[in-house]
Write a structure and sequence with these properties.
With 339 residues, the chain is of the alpha/beta class. The protein contains eleven helices and 13 strands.
């Protein structure tokens, strides 16, 4: 399962070129060179994807949890069997070390599928008896077609985190990965085809947020949106979806501080602070963007933190000894340098 130079959209169970015939550059940030091209999709591609999802929904939503379980588990197995190829693709797109993609991103991606596939076999709920009148209980039923739009920092990890529960519960999905990191979503398309996912159950449309992403959000047949990304984009999505009462899940930008007290386990704290500062090249919402240290241990912390940071190796993402690779894009690098 190898990457292709010209990626295609995954619509109705097939890999298809964009309606426009136009493509966007996909750059390897570690070397600053274009190494593949992704569809520059628009509302026409989204329309085809929604139609395919609508067509697939009646059968997928009623086929039973055991069938959905078996198919999602097969897709998870295919990802795991091709872990090396997925990890290399993730690194080439994002600039993160292959070692991190191989130990964090890709394992979490196939485990996301397994977790939610298994969860649907074990759902339990409460019922409440209204004496002499009725019994109240909750039914969990699929909505229909849902949109999943994922970010660039943990590409397949967060894409599967969105689509897995949607598919497991019987929805059909129109998904858009980040245009900066599309390759593992493209490989996922191939895994779904190999794993026997019925046509139209998952559709992946590549392209830009304002064009492709917005078309998904605006489409009247898309009943819910799950988005992870920047606050400004989240605001735009809410402005579009809220007036028509689409269900929304928005995980937006923001980072937390590390707060370090004098009575901490100093060695363990240093390990955790170093990891939370530089994991994923520092490009993750879980990373601390600032550190508050109790005054009595400030100098000790400062000296030790600087010393340990100097041992981190910034280098070729394909090297097993590199702790940090490249930032995801030239634009992101310029933004970092300006702060």
């Amino acid at each position: 399962m190898l990457p292709d130079k010209y990626l295609k959209n995954y619509i109705g169970g097939s890999l298809v070129p964009p309606v426009s015939g136009e493509y966007l550059d996909n750059t390897n940030p570690a070397i600053g060179k274009v190494y593949s091209y992704i569809p520059d999709s628009d509302e026409r591609d989204v329309q085809k994807a929604v139609e395919a999802a609508e067509k697939a929904f009646p059968e997928w939503s009623t086929c039973g949890v055991r069938k959905r379980f078996r198919i999602l588990m097969r897709v998870a197995d295919i990802i795991e069997q091709n872990l090396e190829e997925f990890a290399k693709a993730e690194s080439a797109d994002s600039g993160k070390p292959v070692s991190m993609a191989a130990t964090v991103d890709i394992p979490r991606a196939h485990e996301n599928l397994r977790f939610f596939a298994t969860a649907i076999l074990h759902f339990a709920g409460e019922s409440h008896h209204m004496e002499g009148q009725a019994i109240n209980y909750t039914l969990r039923q699929p909505l229909g077609v849902v949109g999943c739009i994922s970010p660039w920092n943990l590409p397949l990890y967060l894409f599967t985190w969105k689509i897995a529960p949607a598919l497991a519960s019987g929805n059909c999905v129109v998904g858009k990965p980040s245009e900066l990191t599309p390759m593992t979503a493209y490989l996922l398309s191939k895994a779904c085809m190999e794993g026997g996912l019925p046509p139209g159950v998952l559709n992946i449309v590549h392209g830009l947020g304002p064009k492709t992403g917005q078309a998904i959000v605006e489409h009247p047949k898309v009943k819910a949106i799950s988005f992870t990304g920047g606050t400004a984009t989240g605001r735009k999505i809410a402005e579009t979806a809220a007036p028509v009462f689409k269900k929304l899940s928005l995980e937006l930008g923001g980072k937390n501080p590390n707060i370090i007290f004098a009575d901490c386990d100093f060695d363990q704290m240093m390990v955790d602070t170093l990891r939370s500062s530089f994991s994923n090249n520092g490009q993750i919402c879980l990373c601390g963007s600032r550190i508050y240290v109790e005054r009595t241990i400030y100098e000790r912390f400062r000296d030790e933190f600087v010393k340990r940071t100097q041992f981190l190796k910034v280098g070729d993402p394909t090297s097993p000894v590199s702790d940090l690779g490249a930032l995801v894009s030239k634009a992101h690098l310029e933004k970092y340098k300006a702060t």
